Amino acid sequence: MTFEDNAHLLNICNRIVSRVGRRVDEASPICDARLLDGSRVNIIIPPLALDGPTISIRKFGKRQIGFDQMVQQGNMSPGMATVLRVASRCRLNLVVSGGTGSGKTTLLNALSGMIDNGERVVTIEDAAELRMQQPHVVRLETRPANLEGNGEVNMRDLVKNALRMRPDRIILGEVRGPEAIDLLQAMNTGHDGSMGTLHANRPREALTRLENMVTMGASNLPPKAIRSQIAGSLQMIVQISRMRDGVRRITHITEVVGMEGEVVITQDLFTYEFKGEAADGNLSGTFKSSGLRPHFLSRAAYYGLDKVLMEVVG
């Protein structure tokens, strides 16, 4: 689609955002919203955008992508898919870590597909993208401040409110600020199987980011207490990456094992090992099991899934 000039594009931007109850003008030149069909739209206009209004729309496919399809596409191995299915069924608290556009939300959707229909799930997002299949889902979405600067409802407000709704699980679209402390406390107080995504390039970096975000919400806590809270609440980090051939691959399935001194101890169950580049430009590599005994094996046994788990990691 082409536009006559910047004024024409700005007019289109205004029509888009007014339909979803938002506004974009010189006073508030950035707008991030969800369209009626579920697409995400981001608009930024002058004076912040120097060359004129810029609009980005992220559309989501109609079909839900599950673990089987991800295995076919080379996003993970069959063994990794089994471990993730078991982890979700066993109600492990986990975070999906990765860069922008790496497929974190798609993976979170696949993981949520393993949640039992009898469970009450609360999802909390900045702009709703998660597509839950269960009947008992409460979807919450943040709200920006109005023209007077009032009425903002942020992630932290929604997490606190979600705890009063008797959820079995809480799923955060993206953990990016002080709400991290509330999520960890929720994970620690009976909301097993809670999940979220965050931006980080490696599992160890994800732990550091989580620690930094908790500090935003509880600056008086010493680092050891924060790490101890993380180690006691979080059980798994799934690292996903969009590689230079365009394929999204799970590079690490990492367990959080506990604390040793002041350090959070982790162990990799699976990693992606890069081998080289094929003639067609695609990367070649293998998804490798570490052969380590999963720390959550006894929990899997409680759910009758220990044999299935050992078959793929042994």
Give an overview of the whole structure:
A hairpin with a 5-residue loop joins strand 9 and strand 10 (248-260). It contains ten helices and twelve strands. The mean pLDDT is 91. The protein is α/β, with parallel strands linked by helices. Strands 6-5-7-8-4-9-10-11-12 form a nine-stranded mixed sheet, with helices on both faces. The radius of gyration is 21 Å and the shape is globular. It has two domains: 6-58, Beta-Lactamase (2-Layer Sandwich); 67-313, P-loop containing nucleotide triphosphate hydrolases (Rossmann fold), CATH 3.40.50.300.
List the helices and strands and how they pair.
Layout: H1 6-19, E1 30-34, E2 40-44, E3 54-58, H2 67-72, H3 78-89, E4 94-98, H4 104-112, E5 121-125, E6 137-141, H5 155-162, E7 169-172, H6 179-188, E8 195-199, H7 203-217, H8 223-233, E9 236-242, E10 248-260, E11 263-277, E12 283-289, H9 297-302, H10 306-313
Parallel strand pairs: 4-8, 4-9, 5-6, 5-7, 7-8
Antiparallel strand pairs: 1-2, 2-3, 9-10, 10-11, 11-12
